[in-house]
Design a protein that fits this description.
The structure is a homodimer. Chain A is of the alpha/beta class. Chain A has a single domain, classed as 3-Layer(aba) Sandwich (Rossmann fold), CATH 3.40.50. Helices cover 41% and strands 18% of the residues of chain A. Chain A is built from 8 helices and 7 strands; from the N terminus they run αβαβαβαββααβαβα. At the A-B interface, helix 5 of A face helix 5 of B.
Chain lengths: 219, 219
């Protein structure tokens, strides 16, 4: 009975997500849904990505949070469109929230729309937003065993950015084991290792993203 | 409409939570609901707590995870009752899951039941389990701005354990600012600073918990 209620919610969300996708496709804007635990470094990765794409691609950001506009404030220095969604207690973004946000944006003026989801390794993976790229971050501080415990997001993402590599050696984090586990669950996933603190690995990530934007616009 | 459905779910959960509470009260077992993001150190804190309470209190553990029994395996070395709940995709424990788990436990043989919730800083806060103590962990790696972004859990918890203090200085984490923000939201909250890696601060946490168990049994 509960499950049927949930199925209804997912179906309705899926329908709006398809409408969003059609809008993004029509405007030639690659929408990226960026998911992670709280504190994994979503806003930091976005800030670095904006910095490195400056002059190359026109980027907009939707910031999803339960409450507060801390993240949107941080991105104010980049002269780009930023919309803050406060979900008011809901633990994930959904397609309708995105539909309302993009109604206030000039999509034709963008190449990339980064959607920062609510910090949560579970629920955001269940709600498609209309994105063409599902990206997630895992921070080294969270531990290499997380794919086993939160399988859906790792299975469904196109790309995994492992952040805070400067903390490797401070604990028992095992990158080889992480890569092995994730690749067994999701053989097509692309993995980047970065440190938003030291800057290591960020240019490889941004070059890849830039190439994906180019491919999207072509077809 | 959606909201009404949710209210119904919360009411039903509340009713079972009260039944669980009555069982815990009758058996003199303090139930602690332990909540945190993925990778904040819930299982590590439990392991240290078991170690330090050995010979002082009889402890049982319920491990909540979306999938896997990684955490329950880790606790196998402590000769105590451990029950693993796999929620099968659900992002929090609820009172009915706990009701089913405790039906398999000898509550009269316990002083403390630690319930490790699913790693998630949002949804677990919305579902009472019948606990007398709501505890949460924030790791230094997550950042001091998290209370603003995930207010409910910080507002509703009795105790906050700040873990991974050995990482202070590696980033821009500000303990004074964290304490200030949390105390403004929740003036009665007790805050401990610990490092499960170095052991710092753990005996103060466990001594406090031990005293709470004593008070619960008396009253």
């Amino acid at each position: 009975m509960d499950i049927e209620i949930l199925e209804g919610i997912y179906d309705a969300n899926e329908k709006v997500a398809r409408e969003n996708y059609t809008l993004f496709r029509g405007s030639g804007v690659l929408a990226m849904n960026l998911m992670a635990s709280p504190g994994a470094g979503k806003t930091s990765l976005i800030a670095h990505t904006l910095e490195l794409l400056k002059g190359r691609r026109k980027v907009g950001v939707i910031e999803g949070d339960i409450a507060s506009s801390v993240d949107a404030e941080k991105l104010k220095t980049y002269d780009i469109p930023v919309i803050q969604i406060n979900t008011g207690g809901i633990c994930h973004l959904d397609a309708t929230m995105i539909q309302q946000a993009i109604a206030q944006m000039d999509l034709d003026a963008l190449d990339l729309l980064i959607i920062e989801n609510v910090g949560n390794l579970v629920c955001p993976a269940e709600f498609k937003l209309g994105e063409s790229l599902r990206a997630m971050i895992l921070s080294v501080a969270e531990g290499h065993d997380k794919p086993l415990k939160y399988p859906l997001m790792f299975s469904d993402s196109d790309v995994l950015v492992v952040n805070k590599t400067d903390l490797i050696g401070m604990g028992d984090f095992d990158m080889a084991e992480l890569r092995d586990t994730v690749t067994r669950m999701n053989p097509d996933i692309i993995i980047f290792e970065v440190s938003c603190r030291t800057g290591e690995g960020l240019s490889a990530w941004v070059d890849w993203l830039d190439a994906r934007i180019g491919e999207f616009k072509e077809g």
